[in-house]
TrEMBL record:
The lineage of its organism: Eukaryota, Metazoa, Ecdysozoa, Arthropoda, Hexapoda. It is found in: Secreted, Extracellular space. Transmembrane segments: none annotated. One of its GO terms (biological process) is proteolysis. Keywords: Disulfide bond, Hydrolase, Protease, Serine protease, Signal. It comes from Pyrocoelia pectoralis. This is Peptidase S1 domain-containing protein. InterPro entries: Peptidase_S1, Peptidase_S1_PA, Peptidase_S1_PA_chymotrypsin, Peptidase_S1A, Trypsin_dom, TRYPSIN_HIS. Belongs to the peptidase S1 family. SMART domains: Tryp_SPc. Residues 24-248 form the Peptidase S1 domain.
Length: 249
């Protein structure tokens, strides 16, 4: 798969000549039972993003992963760690619910997928994850996982699910690396030392802190090069209330 192919699989927003993409660099292989909430999002059978199980019929992911609004073109694969999906089970998407306020650059970058059939939750290979509703203190260590690129200049997705540990940083610290108007209260950021962090293809995956889903992977500028990773902050009132209002539709 070429880098250009990966680029068109991801939502891209160009601002002042910078390309914003989302995606694990310097990650470690995952034990399935530790990341049983994670799913692969596929469009026309091709992996494009990650997502997380929040109940047996509902997946949380990034809105920018769903530029094609036809649910018939999407499915998720749950229960495995192989990118091929050979060790998991596919589930068709019935409804796509994107946050109506999403704009470039990744404002309100959150979406819900409703499935045609319920995931068989066994709490070993598949599990629903609890959503965080509290403010996360800067310095908290969290984990992000995904099947994205393993280097900033890579050209292929990881064949297995990888994870890495990252430290949550404050909004002002995050703003110090990015454009002043880019980081908002609805974002949560993690420190990204050179060679570590999320990368293309990890969009939609969940940032997990102390066993709860804290963020949805949104963008990095660029990946694995020292800039903080930004996530949709699930505890943000506008997100938390939106999820409650839409997850059972």
């Amino acid at each position: 798969m070429t880098l250009w192919s990966l680029v068109i699989l991801q939502a891209i927003c160009v601002l002042e000549g910078k390309v914003f993409r989302s995606g694990i660099v310097n990650g470690n292989c995952c034990a399935r039972e530790d990341y049983a909430h994670m799913v692969i999002l596929r469009r026309n059978k091709r992996p494009i993003c990650g997502g997380g199980i929040i109940d047996s019929n509902t997946i949380l992911t990034a809105a920018h992963c769903l530029r094609d609004k036809s649910p018939n073109n999407y499915e998720i694969v749950a229960g495995g760690i192989q990118l091929s999906g050979i060790d998991g089970k596919p589930y068709r998407v019935k409804h796509i619910i994107r946050h109506t306020n999403i704009t470039c650059p990744f404002t309100f970058d959150i979406a819900i997928l409703k499935l045609e059939s319920a995931i068989d939750i066994d709490n070993k290979t598949t599990a629903a994850i609890e959503l965080n509703t509290e403010t996360i203190t800067p310095g908290t260590m969290c984990t992000v996982s995904g099947w994205g690129l393993t280097s900033a200049n890579g050209t292929t997705l990881s064949k297995v699910l990888l994870h890495t540990n990252l430290r949550v940083i404050s909004e002002p610290e995050c703003e110090g690396y990015h454009r002043p108007d880019l980081i908002k209260p609805w974002h949560i950021c993690t420190e990204a030392k050179d060679g570590t962090g999320a990368c293309n293809g990890d969009s939609g995956g969940l940032l997990v802190c102390e066993g709860k889903a804290v963020g949805v992977a949104s963008f990095v500028v660029p990946c694995g090069c020292g800039y903080p990773d930004a996530y949709a902050n699930i505890a943000y009132k506008g997100y938390n209330e939106w999820i409650k209002a839409n997850r059972y539709l």
